[in-house]
Write a structure and sequence with these properties.
Elements lengths: L7 H8 L1 E4 L5 H17 L2 E3 L2 E4 L2 H4 L4 H4 L2 H11 L4 E11 L31 E7 L11 E3 L13 E3 L7 E5 L4 E2 L11 H15 L3 H16 L3 E8 L3 H18 L8 H9 L2 E3 L10
The protein binds 2-oxoglutaric acid and fe (ii) ion.
Fe (ii) ion binds next to loops.
């Protein structure tokens, strides 16, 4: 099934990422927005000036269909070059969060990162994350910016910066070792950054409002005017030791953030994964049981 992009694997192996337009329909995006907004009314953990739900494949069972969506599975199989692929159970959902340059290989989270060691030059290390933004980002800088080719080295300052102009329904697939960032500035529109910093200085001088407090107010105003910035990140890989280690160690991080021990996806989602011939890294999570 080659209907996406003939050079998919080459592009991801060389650059570390690819943008695939129109993977989800408007109705699917609308359904996801509703589900996630509702979820964050009562759940989620505070992170990066917004809310995050780590381990969302377990914590939000209604998301199940997204992980075995036929288009997503087909593109992952094409990328990995084989029928057998593994779902890692990693899924973070974000609402109104800000970000900074980082990699998702866990090197800043635990000793040796999720792979157990720096795996930047390992060819069999093929663990790929899907980024799905639930609104357009082609007219602002609140989507994903990546450093091209940076999955091959540890220095997060290395690699040409590329902003990915996504529309709701597009996906980005990227190597978890790739350096990337989401929205860095409260106003993700370049020409507003200068007036914003002048405004903050003024508020500080006249009303003695700290830059942190005014950042918080300004962000609330921006979010109110432009709507909640929602995104879903989830990860698959080749069924091998790299993917298993990534899944186990990343699950430790997710549980720590959630302060619980909810390890397994629902029976219903598991059934559909198995029907779709997807291997589950959760088979190796028994060792995480406390
Ligand atoms: O906030 C974003 O858009 C990026 C999030 C991200 O990089 C992550 O969840 O690892
Ligand atoms: Fe990330």
């Amino acid at each position: 099934m080659d209907y996406f992009n003939k050079n998919l694997s080459n592009e991801v192996i060389n650059n570390g990422f690819i943008l695939l337009p129109n993977m989800l329909s408007n109705i699917e995006i609308k359904t996801l927005r509703k589900l996630i907004k509702n979820h964050f009314r009562y759940h989620g953990v505070s992170a990066n000036s917004g809310l995050t739900q780590p381990n969302a494949a377990v914590e939000i069972p209604e998301l199940g269909w997204l992980f075995y969506h036929p288009k997503i599975l087909a593109v992952m199989r094409q990328l990995l070059g084989q029928e057998q692929i593994m779902f890692t159970s990693h899924c973070d959902v974000h609402c109104r969060t800000l970000s900074a340059w980082h990699k998702d290989d866990g090197m800043k989270v635990m000793e040796g990162g999720y792979f157990g060691f720096p795996a930047y030059n390992k060819e069999d290390c093929q663990v790929y994350k899907i980024a799905l933004y639930l609104q357009d980002h082609h007219h602002n800088k609140a989507g994903l910016t990546v450093r091209k080719g940076s999955h091959k080295f540890s220095d997060i300052n290395q690699g040409e910066e590329v902003y990915l102009k996504t529309k709701a329904g597009d996906i980005i697939i990227f190597d978890v070792r790739l350096t990337h960032t989401g929205q860095k500035d409260i106003f993700p529109i370049e020409f507003l950054n200068k007036p914003n910093s002048l405004l903050k200085k003024g508020l500080n001088k006249i009303f003695n409002i700290s830059p942190q407090k005014s950042d918080q107010y300004l962000k609330e105003i921006y979010d109110y005017l432009f709507g909640d910035r929602l995104s879903i990140f989830f990860t698959y890989g080749l069924p091998n030791e790299y993917t298993k280690n990534f899944a186990i160690n990343n699950m430790k991080r997710q549980l720590e953030q959630n302060k619980n021990s909810h390890l397994f996806i629902s029976q219903e989602t598991k059934k559909y994964f198995l029907q779709n011939n997807v291997l589950l890294a959760e088979e190796y999570f028994k060792q995480l049981k406390s």
